[in-house]
Amino acid sequence: MTGLPLSPEHPIAYFSAEFGISSAVPIYAGGLGILAGDTLKQAADEKVPMVGVGLMYRGHNVVQEISSEGWQSDKDYLFDPLSVGLEHVYQGDQPLFIKVELGNTTIWLRVWKWVLGPTVTLYFLDSETDQNQLHERSITQELYAGSEELQIKQQLLLSIGGVRLLETLGISPSIYHVNEGRPSFLIWELIVNLQHRYDLNYSQAWELARKKIVYTNHTLVAAGNVNYPADLLRAFITPYAAKLGVHPDILLLPGKNDDSNRFFTTTFALRASRKSSGVSKIHTQLSRQQWPEYDWVSITNGVHFGTWQSESVASRSENPEALWAAHMQEKKQLAEFVTNRTGYSYDPERLVITWARRIAGYKRADAIFADIARLQAIIKNADRPVQLLIAGKAHQLDDDGKKRLQRIIKYMQRELSGSALFVPNYDIDVAKALTRGSDIWLNTPEIGREACGTSGMKALSNGVLNCTVADGWAAEVDWNGKGWVLDSNNISDHLYNTLEREIVPLYYEKEGKSFPSRWVEMMGNSIDYASEFSAARMLNQYQTDLYT
């Protein structure tokens, strides 16, 4: 590990715009936040010194409600941080506040913390405090929403405020890990500190600062690689340029791709870090092709087994009959969970197929619904019935995603009624229940678009068999004896064929036993292989390949 040796005084500083730790604290939007949460949980388990830094969002538009017509609306869950276990951070006997300049305005940030273990604390910066004007107090209210101006303000508060927080607390990180590009402005505050301590010009301080920063890219999809009007950003960074003794355009230059007046966050993050990681082998390969001039390492994401794996299932993976009994118990618990969420029930003895993730076009939630008559014949077979479960949210501004979801729900209400259910408000609790109590985990992205994906890893760890396109993490697995690979170019027809000819017959093939022995053998193979995609393996690779 470069720079200061890793220790409680010199931890890894993990900056992220979102953290998924618990459904009770909705400060995450999807997989990126869940990964951040799993990373900190694993560090806590292993007693690796790490501090997380994020923003305290207040639950706006995080609750998914579905109308009788199948339309998604987004409601608030305005939680009290104190009531869900967060604590104020104090300096002596007074609450700690961090101040950050946004142009000519100074924003005060209250600080919260969540202690995950003796070596891991997660800090949150919160603009909801009386020192700020009313419109300023709302800056950190909502994740990934609002104008470009609001997004820039959030990035600056997270980046600059986060570095100032750690310095105020006397924490001198050994490395700064930027999880996706939004926190990458932290390099400016590091440069200010270096120039203050040493007699360095801007270029010298930039090179020294970037040696302490590593960056993880999570997507090649344009929506995940944000860019802003340079003029808009320039209005807010003047104080930092003045401190650094350079023109604001010098600060903007590393974020410029071309002659357009746009600032690209991903480009800036790549240039502001000494090493970058992709989140699967395919994603890293594509990233190298798109940005060949940077130092890339491939570290496939992993999941925190303490959160996602059923202990009762994992402990019985070597005993087929006991494994099946434990799995059936998980299936019954899922059926009860779904009934509580939806008001509808189903027989847990059925083959349960689940598709659950964000409702985005490239993820193709509707692939299984391409031929409703054929799907109806498969799942409504009286001798070999199938239960289909769908869960996921469209982004609040994604009307196309909401329309896609509405079409799916209408199929469930009409042609597929009694055999298909939508489970609303997909969150950590829903994901836990689904990845433990399903039989098949369905993954249907367009090839080359899924950077990694982690829900299938959670399913794998519980013996839930994957039926997946070989993209992201799934391309790294030999699925023979563990699951099924789908043809991305002929997704729907191939899926129907696989269900009709392989999956459904195998599930119902008991061969005179009380359980489907070949199916359970595949479950055991999956559980045994799952450690390849654990957060433990990922964190170890971070320390050996990314932080060194």
Description:
The chain is elongated. The longest helix has 23 residues, at 320-342. Helix 9 links the parallel strand 15 (275-278) and strand 16 (296-298). Helix 15 packs across helix 16 (455-461). The mean pLDDT is 96. The protein folds into 2 domains: 12-273, Glycogen Phosphorylase B (Rossmann fold, 3-Layer(aba) Sandwich); 305-533, Glycogen Phosphorylase B (Rossmann fold). Strands 1, 2, 5, 8, 9, 10, 11, 12, 15 and 16 form a 10-stranded mixed beta sheet that branches. The protein has 548 residues and is of the alpha/beta class. It contains 19 helices and 22 strands.
Content-based structural category? alpha/beta
Low-confidence stretches: none
Count of alpha/pi helices:
19
Provide the β-strand percentage band: 15-25%
Features:
548 residues; alpha/beta; 10-stranded mixed β-sheet; 19 helices; Rossmann fold; 6-stranded parallel β-sheet
Lay out the secondary structure.
Elements: E1 12-16, H1 31-46, E2 50-55, E3 63-66, E4 72-75, E5 87-88, E6 90-91, E7 94-95, E8 97-102, E9 105-117, E10 120-126, H2 134-137, H3 148-168, E11 175-179, H4 186-197, H5 202-210, E12 213-216, E13 227-229, H6 230-244, H7 248-252, E14 262-264, H8 265-271, E15 275-278, H9 281-290, E16 296-298, H10 305-308, H11 311-314, H12 320-342, E17 351-356, H13 372-379, E18 386-391, H14 399-413, E19 420-423, H15 428-437, E20 440-443, H16 455-461, E21 465-469, E22 483-486, H17 491-508, H18 517-529, H19 535-546
Parallel strand pairs: 1-2, 1-11, 2-10, 11-12, 12-15, 15-16, 17-18, 17-20, 18-19, 20-21, 21-22
Antiparallel strand pairs: 3-4, 5-9, 6-7, 8-9, 9-10, 13-14
Helix pairs in contact: 1-19, 3-4, 4-5, 12-15, 12-18, 15-16
